[in-house]
Amino acid sequence: MKSALSAAHPCLSALALCAAFSIAPAHAAPACPPLPADSGLHWNEQTASGFLVCRASARDGREVLTLMLTGNDPGIPLQRALRQEKDSFAGETMHWYLPDLGGQEPPGYAERRISVVKLQKDRYAQLALYPGSHDELGSLQQLTRALDLNAAAAAVAAGR
User: Fold this and answer.
1) Could you tell me which of 56, 36, 54, 58 has the C-alpha nearest to residue 45?
2) Which residues have C-beta within 8 Å of that of residue 121, sequence separation ≥ 6?
């Protein structure tokens, strides 16, 4: 049986459910760092207490970049033998690595990259690139170098 309030104002019921399950309303400010307008990419965002995951998809629907910001070390072993390019992210020096896929090398493997960057005490960024070509790899590395993490860092710090 519906209450008189929920029958008269179904939107209030939806907002109450959002509040009960700590789901941000659709008009909440995005926490993922802004992407350049000419990049052709858009974010799919997932937030929870203590972490933020931003997945960038290209116009063709392919996921090409994943950024996860967290307060916990992801604990991903990055083997020196898989080390590739030296780079920087959020003012920190870092290296890109080929992902360890247990010896498997699926199509596009040579261009895939991962990294973990310690930003501050109890602040980590985990990055993964899934380019379709060597040229796209360079473009994605350049894009990650330029990401402004201020809004994203504030969201993680606030526990969103």
Assistant:
1) 54
2) none
Residue type, position 100, single letter = D
Q: For 98-134, write each residue's pLDDT tens digit.
A: 999 999 999 999 999 999 999 988 899 999 999 999 9
DSSP codes, the chain = ---HHHHH-HHHHHHHHHHHTTPPPTTSPP-SPPPPGGG--EEEEEEETTEEEEEEE-TTS-EEEEEEEESS-------GGGEEEEEEETTEEEEEE----TT---TTGGG-EEEEEEEETTEEEEEEE--SSHHHHHHHHHHHHH---HHHHHHHHTT-
- Between CA 142 and CA 138 the distance in angstroms is 6
